[in-house]
Design a protein that fits this description.
Strand 1 and strand 2 form a beta hairpin. The protein has 237 residues and is an alpha+beta fold. It starts with 7 loop residues before the first helix and ends with a helix. The longest helix is centred in the C-terminal third of the chain and has 55 residues. Helix 1 packs antiparallel against helix 2 and helix 6 crosses helix 7. 60% of the residues lie in helices and 16% in strands. It folds into 2 domains: 165 residues, 2-Layer Sandwich (Beta-Lactamase); 64 residues, Arc Repressor Mutant, subunit A (Orthogonal Bundle).
C-alpha cells in the first residue's frame, strides 16, 4: 500500500504558495493531483475531473491509468466521478469486486488492477464542477481517517481552484477587453481618414468601412488596419 510522503500540513502549505499569476488552471489542477497522490494514504493514482456543461475531461492525472478510468465513465455517462462532480458529494467504492451501483465500470477497474476508489466533488464555480478521484490497488484501501483527509484536502483544493478559475476568467476577459479597445482604436482612426477624404459624417464613414468589409470578405477591424497602414505609409513618403 502506498504510504504518504507528504504531511497534510505541508500539502496545504504548498497549495497556498501557488501563485495564480504564474500558473494556468490546468497547471494548478496537475499540482493538486500530484499533492493528493503524495498526501492521502493508500493512494496509487489521482486524477481531477472537470465538467462544464456537457464537456467532461480529465486535465490532470498522475498516470494514464487514472485518465483511462475517468474516460471510461465520461464515454458512458455514469460512474463515481461523474456522479460526485455535480452533487459535490464524496462517492466511495470500497471494493470493486462487490460494487452494485456501477458493476461494468467496477469490472473494468478491477481489470486494470484497481481495488477501490474515492471521488470527492469539487464545486469550483456555478458553471464549472469537478471531482478529485483517488484510486488504490487494494480493496478497502481508504479507511475513515483517509477519507476524512481526502475530503479536507479536496476542500482546500476547491478554494484554490475557484480562485484560479476566477483569475483565469478575469485574465481572459481583460485580454478580450484590451483587444476590443485596440480594434475600436484602429476603426476610429480609419473612420477619421475616410471622413477627411470624403468630407462625410462618422456614420457614413463607418458605413463605407462596413461595405469594404463585405466586399472583401474581411473583418471591419482588418479593413480599418489596412487603411490606417496605407495612410501612415503615404504620410511617411
Amino acid at each position: 500500500m502506498h504510504e504518504p510522503s507528504l504531511s497534510p500540513e505541508s500539502a496545504f502549505t504548498e497549495l497556498s504558495r501557488i501563485r495564480l499569476d504564474e500558473v494556468g488552471l490546468d497547471d494548478m489542477l496537475q499540482r493538486i493531483a500530484q499533492l493528493a497522490n503524495r498526501t492521502v494514504p493508500g493512494t496509487r493514482d489521482v486524477s481531477v475531473t472537470l465538467i462544464r456543461g456537457q464537456d467532461r475531461r480529465t486535465p490532470a492525472f498522475t498516470s494514464e491509468l487514472a485518465k483511462d478510468l475517468d474516460d471510461w465513465q465520461y464515454q458512458r455517462g455514469f460512474g463515481p466521478c461523474v456522479d460526485s462532480s455535480p452533487s459535490g458529494d464524496s462517492v466511495s467504492v470500497p471494493d470493486m469486486a462487490a460494487e452494485p451501483r456501477w458493476p461494468d465500470w467496477a469490472e473494468y477497474a478491477r481489470g486494470r488492477g484497481v481495488g477501490s476508489s474515492l471521488s470527492i466533488g469539487l464545486p469550483i464555480q456555478d458553471a464549472v464542477v469537478g471531482a478529485l478521484n483517488v484510486y488504490a490497488e487494494q480493496a478497502h484501501a481508504f479507511d475513515a481517517a483517509a477519507v476524512a483527509l481526502a475530503e479536507r484536502f479536496a476542500a482546500y483544493a476547491a478554494v484554490a481552484l475557484a480562485n484560479a478559475h476566477l483569475y483565469d476568467t478575469t485574465a481572459t476577459l481583460a485580454e478580450q477587453m484590451q483587444e476590443a479597445m485596440r480594434n475600436r482604436a484602429v476603426i476610429e482612426q480609419a473612420k477619421g481618414i475616410i471622413m477627411g477624404e470624403r468630407r462625410c459624417a462618422p456614420e457614413e464613414a463607418f458605413a463605407i468601412l462596413s461595405k469594404l468589409s463585405q466586399d472583401t470578405n474581411r473583418k471591419v477591424r482588418d479593413v480599418a488596419a489596412i487603411l490606417v497602414a496605407r495612410a501612415v505609409g503615404t504620410a511617411r513618403d
